[in-house]
Design a protein that fits this description.
mainly alpha, 4 helices
Length: about 100
Amino acid sequence: MAGASGAPPEVMPEAADLLAAFWSLVWDRPIGFGGYGGIPFSAIARYAAALGVVGDELWAFERAIRAADGEWLRWTNAKDGKPHNVASRPMSPELFDAVFG
């Protein structure tokens, strides 16, 4: 996904590992007649376990992956060329800061 200038958006250095995890997990999602589904929790938990992420960090990791996945799904599943919100809470700067710190 590119920014308004056509260039990829900048990623905060502290979010780079989470974004790399998201792009690794993106291949675990189901694909159906209605488009792409969300990344299953089992895939997120398996990836987190491989990294040694447990406890409260697991839940923060899951929220971060779900936030990125919600935006990806919104953009990918758009039928009329306009993104649609598939998350219960659209990504905002405040939500991004809350998820990614």
